[in-house]
Amino acid sequence: MGLEIIANNLGFFLKGAILTLEISLAAIALGFALGVPMGLARISRVLPVRALATGYVEALRGTPLLVQIFIVYFGLPSIGIYLDPLVSGILAVGLNSAAYQAEILRGGIQSVPKGQMEAARSMGMTYGQSMRRVVLPQAMRLIIPPMTNEFIILIKDSSLVSAISVWELTLVAKELNAKYFDPFTIFLFVAAVYFIMTFATSKILRVVEKKTAIPGFGAGD
Q1: pLDDT digit string (tens) for 160-169?
Q2: Residue 165: which region, alpha, beta or left (left: phi > 0; alpha: psi -120 to 50)?
Q3: Which end of the chain is more exposed for a tag (fewer CB within 10 A), N or C?
Q4: In angstroms, rounded to a whole number, what is the distance separating the alpha carbons of residues 50 and 71?
Q5: pTM of this prediction?
Q6: Taken in order 199, 204, 205, 207, is the CA torsion positive or negative?
């Protein structure tokens, strides 16, 4: 059978790949929306806020993503919250990504020279204005390389939602393998599709990185 299996089921693979990208984009957006305030909380001068954010980051980074997916999908119904598999998968992967993105942003903010904040404060800006208008714009440009890595990892990790029956690329491969029993061809093809998606993501974000590079910082010098 070999390549004939791939050719006859290209439509299924394509749908799986599209859903994989949709899950990844939704999760990275959710992770960013939560990761930004979380990253700011990580450097907050208010101890309870900083402690709460640190606890979240350490808990999410210190437990397996698959377990977190199971908690969201199988655990939440026990307290009356029912989510379908796709929403559960996006929520779990997004919450997990938020912890990593918070740390990336914290590192980016701390990479901006302190003189930038001091200069902004000396011009009469408040701490919040200095952070919003001076520090964060620079930090956002500095975090593009680690965010590229996070996005690539997230695309690959999205395969874990197949464990709760989300019909993304990996589950499509599992089902086709159960039908044709040709794991080498099917999973090798799926691996190639994942590689194409991550490689393309890396190249696109590399272009963004070069266009937004700050002179004197990083690889875009």
Answers
A1: 999 999 999 9
A2: left
A3: C
A4: 25
A5: 0.89
A6: positive
